[in-house]
Write a structure and sequence with these properties.
heterodimer, A: 186 residues, mainly beta, SH3 type barrels, OB fold (Dihydrolipoamide Acetyltransferase, E2P), six-stranded antiparallel beta sheet, 16 strands, globular, B: 398 residues, alpha/beta, Rossmann fold, eight-stranded mixed beta sheet, 16 helices, 44% helix, Rib_uL2_dom2 (chain A), Elong-fact-P_C (chain A), protein biosynthesis (chain A), translation elongation factor activity (chain A)
Chain lengths: 186, 398
């Protein structure tokens, strides 16, 4: 079982008798510190998608499907192509990557886990954290070094991350792929 | 008010059940009690309000007997419950769990059985969430939550925009307020009723219902230096501890004496009042300091300037919620006044005493434009439909 708060793109959960792949997660905070998790899910039997909301502590059955360690190879619109250690290639629909697509870039070395359902590659899970270079961000306004003042930054691949104000263009930053949050400058 | 034993109405097929767990004294129960009354008054819906803590509830409904598990007030069936007790529950048309309170497993099991045997009779299950002005609320409002049991629950988010669940506001509330505020004798009569006879119509009057904060002391010091007579009216609650600290006395002493005077400043400790009385208190003051969710909203309907002492959250997340509200509230306010008011609220919530003093002085000088804005704000905030009407429409369309 996993809580809604622990889910991340690529996980497959069982709801109402159907397997659903998590395409996107968005965690926010309601009153009194309670987490609210909004999920975009794809039904693997019906090929339909839905948006749904859970309390952060809601528990759900995650399905352990076949997985393979792979590395990203290339993008052939609309498929991301991954390759295992034996040079077998697997196509994953861009839509199924959800938020994870923002961290997939040419030449990335991190191992990803490709998940299979009935022999078909259906999703990809990234490592918990990845390191990416900041390609654009505004200069710090007042030289804040506390890490509490935040600003948007564009990273390699075109994704946007909210970073501490002291982060500069060219810095490499660690990002939590589950939440999309900036962790630290490396 | 009709007060007769809870009747067979509790088991009508189209009744609504609202479940509430009291977390602090007046917030959760304040919101659900207002909603229940409004659904009965304006939509003639039979409502069962399930409350775990009748003692807290009795503070805002003095007629309530905390030891009676089933009672009937203002057309609402009030039923005491707790998670571990056996609950005699008959599913109706709608089941509202307020603020994500956890329903007893026996009720969930009942719903699961009903889904298997008679799915059309499963009530629409709604989680009524906390009020927030943050952008993400629009994207989460009214989304289903697919439960592992096969049941479906909907997240209903109150909010300040047309794409959210709206705000609790009774149909004739603003007209009642206008009528009340039109005649200064109304407020003087209310103050006299509260045991305060020496407030003059031209005196400055502020109500104070906050969490504990040293910022209160800063405001008292400010009023002490002014020549105009000021009155601070304090309903019993956490603000008293801060006042006691500032006056170097005990809370018990405050409650016993009820009235303290420092130069031209009078501090009055008020007896507990019901929601109707609290609304009138807010309408009667020049400025209100409020907290949490229920009093925060009622202060907006009062059409008077206010400070929101927001419920503190981990990692200062409450400041994000405060900023989100201030952004919406200040949208049509002159930037220099908006900035001062926002900075005052931030300083008050962060116990930044120097800034509280600085920005309070500025706001004091800008009172009239702030008042004008506060008067206009409820119409903007409601966006043509209050929470109850949107909720009833949501149920009809689901």
């Amino acid at each position: 079982m996993k809580t809604a708060h622990e889910l991340r793109p690529g996980n497959v959960i069982m709801l109402d008798g159907s397997p659903w792949v998590v395409q996107k997660t968005e965690t926010t905070r309601s009153g009194r510190n309670a987490a609210i998790v909004k999920l975009k899910l794809k039904n693997l039997l019906q090929d339909s998608t839905t948006e749904t909301t859970f309390k952060g502590e809601d528990k759900m059955e995650d399905i352990i499907l076949d997985r393979l360690d792979c590395t990203y190879s290339y993008y052939a619109d609309p498929m991301y192509v991954f390759m295992d250690a034996e040079y077998n290639q697997y196509d994953v629909e861009a839509e199924n990557l959800g938020d994870a697509a923002a961290y997939i870039v040419d030449g990335m070395e991190e191992n990803c886990q490709v998940t299979f359902y009935e022999g078909k590659a259906i999703s990809v899970e990234l490592p918990t954290s990845v390191v990416r270079e900041v390609t654009y961000t505004e200069p710090a306004a007042r030289g804040d070094t506390s890490g509490k003042v935040m600003k948007p930054a564009t990273i390699t691949g075109g994704g946007t991350v909210t970073v501490a104000e002291f982060v500069k263009i060219g810095d490499k930053i660690e990002i939590d792929t589950r939440t999309g949050e900036f962790k630290k400058r490396v | 008010m009709v007060n007769s034993p809870a009747s067979d109405n509790t088991t009508t097929a189209n009744h609504w059940d609202i479940f509430c767990v009291v977390v602090d004294n007046y917030g959760d129960i304040g919101v659900t009690w207002r909603l229940a009354k409004q659904l009965v008054d304006e939509y003639q819906i039979t409502v069962n309000l399930w409350v775990d803590d009748l003692h807290s509830f009795s503070h805002i409904l003095p007629q309530l007997n905390p030891y009676n598990v089933r009672q009937y007030f203002f057309g609402v069936n009030i039923i005491q419950w707790n998670k571990d007790s056996i609950i005699d529950f008959t599913p109706g048309e709608v089941l509202v769990e307020a603020f994500a309170c956890e329903l007893p497993s026996s009720i969930i099991n009942q719903l699961v059985t009903l889904k298997q045997t008679n799915p059309s009779q499963v009530p629409l299950w709604i989680n009524l969430e906390y009020l927030s002005a943050e952008d993400w609320v629009e994207g989460c409002h009214a989304l289903p939550s697919l439960q592992a049991t096969g049941l479906k629950k909907y997240f209903y988010f109150p909010g300040f925009t047309p794409k959210t669940g709206g705000l609790i506001c009774e149909a004739n509330l603003l007209q009642q307020r206008d009528s009340w505020q039109h005649n200064p004798q109304h407020k003087l009569a209310l103050f006299a009723q509260l045991g305060i006879n020496h407030i003059k119509a031209e005196d400055y009057v502020m109500s104070l219902f906050s969490y504990e904060t040293d910022s209160i002391g800063v405001l008292i010091d400010y009023f002490v230096q002014k020549t105009k007579t000021s009155h601070i009216l304090v309903p019993q609650g956490k603000s008293l501890a801060s006042i006691a600290k500032h006056l170097s006395c005990s809370v018990e002493e405050l409650i016993k004496q009820r009235h303290f005077q420092l130069n031209n400043v009078h501090i009055h400790v008020l007896p507990m009042t019901d929601q109707h009385g609290y609304d009138r208190l807010l309408w009667s003051c020049d400025f209100n300091i409020v907290r949490g969710e229920d009093s925060f909203l009622r202060a907006q309907w009062a059409g008077k300037p206010f400070i929101w002492h927001i419920y503190p959250q981990e990692d200062d997340y409450h400041l994000i919620k405060l900023r989100a509200f201030m952004k919406i509230y200040c949208d049509n306010l002159a930037p220099e006044i908006a900035n001062e008011w926002a900075e005052l609220n931030l300083a008050f919530n962060q116990d930044d005493l120097t800034k509280v003093a600085e920005h309070w002085q500025s706001i004091d000088f800008q009172y009239l434009p702030l008042l004008k804005h506060a008067k206009k704000w409820p119409i903007d905030a409601l966006n043509g439909a209050d929470l109850a009407s949107r909720l009833v429409r949501f149920v009809k369309n689901s």
